Amino acid sequence: MEIGISQEALAEILGVTYQQVQRYENGTNRLNVENIQLIADALSESVLYFFENGKTSIVGEKPLHYLTTEESKLLKYFRKIKESSSKNIVLQVARLAARGEP
Predict the structure, then answer these.
(1) 40 shares its domain with 74
(2) What distance in Å separates the CA atoms of residue 75 and residue 78, rounded to the nearest whole number?
């Protein structure tokens, strides 16, 4: 409400249900760093928006390390793949590319 976007609209942008957005807002489901960034991007806000002015902040997991932009993009698209056979193809391609094979 503060930013002028409904839970339904934000849910559509994020590709989740509005109930999931409610869970994020009330702290039932914790957010990882990547999801905080996705929500900030969707709202055209800085990630700092969620951590300023005494607002409660809940982060679900501690990052082991920061991902590069390319790694984040790859992970984002990989997570959208539904079929395990398609995921295996992506993994095989990545393995081959990492070896320097054509």
Answers:
(1) no
(2) 5
